[in-house]
Write a structure and sequence with these properties.
The chain is an alpha/beta fold. Helix content is 47%, strand content 18%. The protein contains 19 helices and 18 strands.
Length: 663
């Protein structure tokens, strides 16, 4: 349905890609990936006809209907949310206007229904009405509501003006309008950036039932795994197409690299043998013919390049300052924007040292409000907020960019977060978040919104704290940067409370989930995937620790006192349960990690031994051959033993987690 031929694009001296050849077939859902700056968004814009290539062309089948969602959209006007989204059904509304017009003309005939003109008009009206019904005209308005509500809007909001919405919510309106168009080929550039977890799940379901084709740019691994039938990797050399989702792509790349490495080693061995023969018999007349033959063979041999290992940046967050066991307490909190709109009433939660938890729940449930309450960034009417002993919280939100010094360079701004840190350490963290050697010299004032957001994140990672409160920290991060951040947060010994729409990221970082809904907070031990399994299986614990609305003094005063005692007891039991879980689960996790580390060491040594056995001069020393073979055999036996230990430890850990969930 779409053919890209010999496509090239440059901006000034920078070449994004050259001689791209790519074909998109009907029904394919392609995830377009590549390093930062590879030109993924530019390529999609060329396909959408918004940018002209320097060379090459994009061909498509006749009548192909394209739908394109950019990363950023222009501000919408004063239309209602419903009417703006309904523009996606423009052709259907045009047909409806035609049907209504024909109906008006028919009505003008009154009782004179025997004329030839009337019957001809009646036939035209019947055909138009049948088309309208066939194209879903009678369900159109409910479809508009369905898609808007799936993307997080409430029905009562749909008649509000678009220009009262934030940029992220306006993006959802544009996405709804695009989905209603039902194009043959959807081009989506980071569609999940402005969606919450519930909306991402809805969009996943919608796209999986979408009958057209799809090209998707996303840094969300879970989303790519759920949606894609193919992965297209864009580099300067062109597009490489892989069948399957993102994890399939990773496996195929690894297999390709292993094959290339074997080919390179075999070629190196063959080349060494040829060169040794040539050198040995170069001046021997009787071997001249064989020497020349081998010289020509060497000249024709195409070198298999060594596989370049992707450089992985690892760093640790600044060690958190020592603090008390309880880092944050909210008790009896009442919070809302008016007497009618109360978000929390009688909220009582506690965050313990070292907890890594995610706040999840439907849009508008109060996740960001709870994070702000923990951070002290919003007011409340009743109750109290208590910071634990020696606790130093750090709240990461969008407004963090406003605190940046616009006159400083990127490097100076990062250095200001941690006095005495080495330049090398700071540069490595900046590099992990896409600031190269030239970027660090730029003034903060010239950075884009996304770059400022990433710089604010770097400052957070460099600032000593023992409680991190993170609101969508993965926005504007590519896959590599998300992995670096997840690795750092996973090893962080302080407490972490985060909101994110990236399910893979939550699973990597958090081992506890707090479900926020209708003023209630419900805890689940385990990562987000485990939480979803619990919900689907009906394993829902009691709200933690308060009900949505606590009784007032004027109603049931005796029960109020009784419930307060129950809450304290519930908090105590929850704390004991977490401590008991930690005592059992932590040693098991360490056992698993120890086995994994041992497996990695053995595999690395086996790789070294294999390299020795592949060396051209290895078999010149019989004693060395025997020694290496014996060590390889011993290591292989040890690997199998440790693998068994690892499997048993994993099983034991899984059983322990399940036992706690069933309590």
């Amino acid at each position: 349905m779409l053919w890209i031929q010999d496509l090239s694009k440059s901006f000034g001296p920078q070449t994004l890609f050259e001689h791209v050849q790519w074909q998109v077939n009907p029904g394919q859902r392609v995830g377009l990936i590549g390093p930062n700056g590879a030109g993924k968004s530019t390529l999609i814009k060329i396909v959408a006809g918004m940018i002209e290539p320097d060379h090459g062309q994009v061909n498509q089948i006749k009548g192909l209907k394209l739908g394109y969602l950019p990363q950023e959209v222009a501000e919408l006007g004063g239309n209602s949310i419903r009417s703006e989204a309904s523009k996606g059904l423009a052709s259907l509304w045009k047909l409806k206007a035609e049907v209504d017009s024909l109906a008006t003309k028919l009505a003008s005939y009154g009782s004179n229904t025997e004329s030839l003109e009337y019957n001809e008009l009646l036939n035209v009206y019947g055909t138009a009405q049948a088309r309208f019904e066939q194209e879903g005209g009678f369900e159109a308005e409910s479809k508009v509501e369905q898609i808007l509500c799936g993307l997080g809007f409430r029905v009562e909001q749909l008649d509000n003006r678009c220009d009262t919405l934030s940029g992220g919510w306006q993006m959802r309106v544009v996405l709804a309008r695009l989905l209603l168009q039902s194009p043959d080929l959807l081009l989506l550039d980071e569609p999940t950036n402005h969606l919450d977890l519930e909306s991402v799940g809805w969009l996943k379901h919608f796209l999986n039932t979408f009958e057209g084709s799809l090209i998707l740019i996303s840094h969300d691994r879970w989303f790519l795994n759920q949606i894609c039938t193919h992965i297209a990797e864009l580099t300067q050399e062109g597009v490489g197409l892989f069948t399957g989702h993102f994890e399939d792509y990773l496996r195929q790349v690894e297999q390709q690299n292993e094959l290339l490495e074997r080919q390179r080693k075999n070629q190196a061995k063959k080349t060494a043998n040829l060169e040794r023969f040539i050198e040995r018999f170069r001046y021997k007349a009787s071997k001249a013919k064989q020497v020349q033959s081998r010289v020509k063979l060497l000249e024709k041999m195409q070198t298999v390049q060594e596989v370049q290992e992707t450089q992985t940046i690892h760093f640790q967050l600044t060690e958190p300052p020592k603090c008390g066991r309880t880092v944050m307490t909210l008790e009896g909190i009442e919070q809302g924007y008016s007497t009618e709109q109360v978000i929390y009433r009688g909220l009582d939660v506690k965050v313990e040292r070292g907890q890594h938890l995610a706040l999840v729940g439907p849009n508008g449930a109060g996740k960001s409000t709870l994070l702000k309450l923990l951070a002290g960034a919003t007011d409340y009417r009743k109750g109290f907020r208590e910071l634990g002993h020696l606790v130093k919280p750090y709240y990461f939100a969008q407004h963090q960019t406003e605190a940046l010094n616009l006159e400083w360079t990127v490097l100076q701004e990062a250095q200001s977060a941690q006095e005495g840190a080495s330049i090398t350490h700071i540069r490595s963290i900046l590099g992990a978040f896409l600031f190269d050697a030239e970027d660090v010299k730029k003034k903060v004032a010239v950075l884009s919104g996304g770059e400022k957001n990433r710089l604010a994140l770097v400052k957070m990672l460099l600032t000593p704290s023992n409680l991190l409160l993170l609101d969508e920290p993965t926005n504007h991060l590519d896959m590599g940067s998300r992995a670096v951040l997840a690795q750092a947060l996973r090893a962080y010994e302080g407490a972490v409370v985060l909101i994110s729409h990236d399910r893979y990221f939550i699973d990597e970082v958090c081992d506890e989930v707090w479900e926020v809904n209708t003023g209630r907070v419900t805890p689940f031990l385990g990562n987000y995937s485990h939480y979803l399994e619990c919900v689907q299986q009906g394993k829902r614990p009691m709200p933690f620790p308060l009900s949505a609305v606590a009784p007032t003094q004027s109603t049931l005063p005796s029960q109020t006192v009784h419930k307060k005692v129950d809450r304290k007891e519930e908090r105590r039991r929850n704390a004991e349960r977490r401590e008991a879980r930690s005592k059992i689960v932590k040693p098991l996790k360490k056992k698993v990690e120890k086995a994994e580390a041992e497996i990695q060491r053995i595999e690395e040594r086996l790789a070294e031994l294999e390299a020795l056995q592949c060396a051209s001069d290895h078999y010149d020393n019989p004693e060395e051959v025997v020694r290496v073979a014996k060590e390889a055999s011993d290591k292989q036996a040890l690997l199998e033993s440790v693998m068994t230990e690892w499997e048993e430890a994993e099983l034991e850990l899984a059983q322990a987690l399940e036992n706690f969930d069933q309590e």
